[in-house]
Amino acid sequence: MARMGTYCRAYHVRDLSAYPGWRPDTAQLRPGADAAPRTALDDEDLLYLQDDHTVTDGIFQDEHVVFADGGPEWRAFCAGPLGFEPPAPVEAEPEPAASVA
Q1: 27-47, pLDDT tens digit by residue?
Q2: Across the strands, what pairs with 56?
Q3: Are 9 and 48 in contact (CB under 8 A)?
Q4: CB of 30 closer than 8 Å to CB of 42
Q5: Residue 62 within a domain
Q6: Of the N and C termini of the chain, which has fewer Cβ atoms inside 10 Å?
Q7: Structural domain count of the chain
Q8: Considering only CA atoms, which of 23, 25, 19 is closest in space to residue 72?
Q9: Of the candidates 6, 93, 3, the residue with the CA atom closest to the CA atom of residue 53
């Protein structure tokens, strides 16, 4: 079953491709609307930057992974030019203490 991450954000390919090491794996693209395989990306296509810094063609974190660099330069590019900053994890509030009667 496909796994959702805790956060992802859509970016145009033109923005992602500004990274010097951008080498998408086009073999991982989802099929087109007519079910035909896609073999290329256009600047206007949207891809999803996941909270683990992988880039996917869809919202699921473990499907259609087209880029998975993960190095410090990529993470710096995501934080800098892309402004990607996943929200901090939300901690559960403690249960209220039971009152003693």
Answers
A1: 999 998 899 999 999 999 999
A2: 48, 65
A3: yes
A4: no
A5: yes
A6: C
A7: 1
A8: 19
A9: 6
Reduced to 3 states (helix: H, G, I; strand: E, B; else coil), residue 28 is: helix
Residue 56 is classified by DSSP as E
Q: For residue 72, tell me if it sits in a domain.
A: yes
* Torsion sign over Cα 9, 15, 17, 18: negative
What distances in angstroms separate CA 41 from CA 4, 11, 16, 91, one per listed residue?
Answer: 23, 13, 11, 38
Q: Token pair for residue 55?
A: 């880039």
Residue 68 lies in a domain: yes
- Please identify which residue in the block is written with the tokens 């939300």: 90
- Distance set, CA 65 to CA 13, 29, 92, 101 (Å): 14, 8, 31, 57
| Contact yes or no for 53/75 (Cβ under 8 A) | yes
Structure token pair of residue 7: 């956060």
Structural domain harbouring 32: 8-79
Decide if pLDDT at 55 tops 80: yes
The pair of three-digit structure tokens given for residue 32, joined into one six-digit string: 């087109």
Domain assignment present for residue 3? The answer is no
